[in-house]
Structures are given as C-alpha cells and as structure tokens.
Task: structure prediction
Amino acid sequence: MACISSDGKPTESGIKLLRSLESGLRSPEEVAKYTGLPLFRVRSGLRELAGAELVTQKGEGYELSDKGDKLIGSLP
Amino acid sequence: MEELKQEIRLPRIGDPAPDFEAVTTHGTIKLEDYKGSWLVLFSHPADFTPVCTTEFMAFAEIYGELQKRGVELLGLSVDSVSSHIAWARNIEEKAGVKIPFPIIADLSKEVTLSYGMVHPGESKTETVRCVFIIDPNQIIRAILYYPLTTGRNMAEILRLIDALQTTDQHGVATPANWKPGDMVVMPPPKTQEMAEERLKQGYECKDWYLCMKKL
Result:
C-alpha cells in the first residue's frame, strides 16, 4: 500500500490506517470496514506500519504504538 | 538445469497458489493478503507495448464488475516499479484510464517462475499472457494462457468467474457457452438409484446423465 514515503513519513493512506486505530485494537477486517479500503491493502499497509514501529501487532489485531500515537497527536 | 526445470513448472488447477511476497506499484504485497477474496493474477509481456496497453485499459474497465463479485486484480511483468508507474501514468494521460490495481515488478522473476509464466517457445524473457483465477482459500481454480500476439477477452474472464462462483454457491456445473441466467447442469448421478430418481425430480433431462435446471 506504500504507507510510508521515502522520507520516512506516513502517506495519506498510512495516516488513514493510523487514524482507524485511534479507538484501540482492531483486526485488519475491522480496519477495512472502517476505512473502506480493500482488505489486501489494509493487510499490507498495517504490516508496513508495523515495520516502521508506528503500530504493534497483537494476535490478529493491530494497535497504535507510542510512536504512532505521538505522530497522530502531532497532526493537524 | 535446475533453472530450466523451474522455468517449465506449471501450477495446475486445484493446486494451492504458490506463495509470494512481491514489490508492486502499491507497495509490498503477499499472496496471503488476499485470503478471503478471489484474485485474478495476470501477467503481461512488457510495459509500453501496444497489446498490453489495450489489455490494461480493458482490465481497468472491468475492475468495477470484478469488485462487485469480490474479486481483486493483480498484474505482473518483468519490469521495474518505475516502469510500471510511468506506463500507468502514460495510460491515464493518453487514454484517460486510471489503473486502479497493483502491478508486480518481478525483476527477479521469482513469481514468474513459480507460476510458470515464461513459455520459452514463445519468449525466453517475457511472460506470456497468463490468467490465474485464485479462490478465497488460495486454490487455483482456473488458468488461461494467451500468446504474445493475442489480447485477452475480458467478457470471458468475467464469465469464468461467474461460472466458478455459481458452482461454489449452488453445487452445479455450467454448460458450454453458459452465461448468468442460463440453465445449469446437475452433477452426474453416482449410483443407479440416483440416476433413476434424477429422472423423476422435475429437471429438464435429455437422459439420466444430462439434466439441467434453472437456478
């Protein structure tokens, strides 16, 4: 999904995924339903965000990491 | 020798789809990301070539119809991501058609070889026009191969998906030239008793082995 751009910042779709986790732990299926994005894009995007340590995987679900939480908090 | 063996390996209908993790125009994608959806994985010989361009525009045109059926599209060729991006942008600029699906940049030929997409008699370097229809359990359900010179028929790809989904939903088969709304074929009876009963069940039967019904 390319959620992280070459300068290390999340793209528009990356921010959309991060915002979907503001309310807490969600499965990729729940994120897909919430964002309206295709499930395959959500799965690949969350994996990329986890690689950038912006989200943390817990079982089948994902939640914001401290780093992700701070980043979302700093956005307008 | 090992490489030659890999090149001629052809996955078959009913096989689990070979796993992959690939760089695409939408980022890194794994086959498992499509679990739960149908997937049409198709290859084209090369970016910026005429027949492939007409096919990409045609795939983009049926993308909405595929989505209605719960099907995702994933293209592939042995070109770079930059080439794919430039080509997709060119198609949009010149033809006004946006390419909405990801395209694998398979420069290493890893996916190409695992799906048997290079047919050396046709081209030693380019992928032929393959279509793999993969179901939500990631089993290969249908395979189409077209030569480099012949563009694919989108109506047939949609028809094939409709037929497979109808088979799964209703436990029936579909006859020659079937299209949605036509009669479907009852599976052949497995015993003599079932064959006799079949004739009394109100189906339209030519004989005990060829019975059809409306859905």
In short: Residues 12-74 of chain A form a domain with the Arc Repressor Mutant, subunit A fold (CATH 1.10.10.10). The first helix of chain A runs from residue 12 to 20. Helices of chain A lie at 12-20, 28-35, 39-51, 66-74.
